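Lab notebook: predicted structure, single chain.

Context: the supervisor wants predicted structures on file for every construct in the current expression panel, including those that have not yet been purified. This is the next one on the list. No modifications to the sequence; it matches the entry in the shared construct table.
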Amino acid sequence: MAKKKTIFICSNCQYESIGYLGKCPECASWGTLEEIEVSKEKTSSSKRIVSSKKIEKLQNIETSNSDRIITNISEFNRVMGGGIVKDSVTILSAVPGAGKSTLLLQVANDLANLGNKILYASGEESESQIKKRADRIEDRISENLWVIADNSMDNVSGIVDELDPKIIIIDSIQTFTLDEFSGSRAGSPTQTMECANRLVEIAKNSSNPRVVIIVGQMTKNNEIAGVRALEHLVDTVLIIEGESGEELRSLITTKNRYGSTGEIGFFSMTEKGMVSIDNPSEYFMTQRKEGHLVPGSAITVVREGTRPIILEIESLVSQSFTPYPSRISECFRKDNLNTLVSILEQRAGLQLYDKNVVIKTTGGIKLKEQASNLAVLMSIVSSIKGEGIDNHTVFIGDVGLTGELKRVPSLEQRIKELDRMGFKKVYVAEGSSKNAQTNNLKIIEKETLRDVIDDVFKNIKF
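Prediction complete. Output recorded below exactly as produced.
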């Protein structure tokens, strides 16, 4: 007969204690130890546990690309590494209102239309609420899409056995509970981890593998709610970034056992749901008439995941009437902007001590790599002099404190994208483009920032 045992588990770090403590010895949090009743079967300490699983040589295990399920949402396929692996567990998280449920309902209906039986289990919304969202974003709801509004993981497990779906969507994991751990409330580390473990068992069943996609709530610190072990448990972690009042949404892979980490897919939030942006390079550039030059604009190529994206950087330089001029940037760190302004003053001879400098990117994309520094500086120079840069000219390169241009990774890939999009000139560091091949794009190599400025603004005296 099973013995009942009471333990106390910290809701913050999962430290276990046989007695109650006001302060957790592990994380020093107060009042976080929760009383949990668990069952413990009597076992003989001398009894050997024999595994029923057979071991195999790694070289004898067969794999196939057909183990992926391909959706009709290209940006979702990209961040998943080319499609959804059939025995994988994925967790998707975002701040409230970012579009988690909307995107997954679109994915569910799309996969259902491809002939896959889908179970969408929600612990947050009723069936009628899910139906209203589906009617708004989908023209036709597939007959292969099944929904249940319940927060019992035991009931969901029973329905999985009965319905035998190939894909299971759980929205959200923090709202589900297992009866075995009735002493813990929904959202506690114990319930969250045990429910997630149950879903992993369902997905990794060797005789009947399934896809499991979990919605994870996000804390005010922009982290997935619950213990960090939840992220280690799953195969893929996806994060949706984007302000609720803005149209652009970014789907980012922070962990992927079956693809590249850091891959990004772009979506536009509309009344019809999340629309895949299949050509981000066009989205992140302002479409201007031929020959219409605007001061303060420069174009570069950044890499998001494995993909090069052509991006427009805008600068505004204005007179400051305060002792401390403003340095404002929404797209990268203020310290980086201050460093670039100092380089421009010292190495190019431009005085900005009494000027406000504002930087932003079209579409609000973040500048995460140094390859965009040259374009940022050239956009500032363009704004200072009130002279626009030709729309077909691009700048790719880092700029050192000495004012010298530095090489950047994956330059050939960036240049290939520019050539494909019909640009005419690109400025890069000296000796960095030896292996690049183009059809119509002219590659101009320069040694210093001053050399680039002099070449672009030939008719302007500094």
